[in-house]
Structure prediction request, 68 residues.
Amino acid sequence: MKCPQCDASDTAPIIYGMATPELFSDQKAPKLKIGGCDLDEENPVLHCFACGHEWGRMGDAYPEMFRD
Prediction:
């Protein structure tokens, strides 16, 4: 998914909750951004590593990767 602010493709989902050692040790895992342990409906769900912009909210229509 491209960043809506800078159009870079260097983006990743933001993962909330307790990060485990396995999350960091899997070299084949996709790039992730650790968001911390505070869960809130207003937390952003996507991060751009190029410009730092964070966007999207749980339940928003466009982040297809977060739909059931």
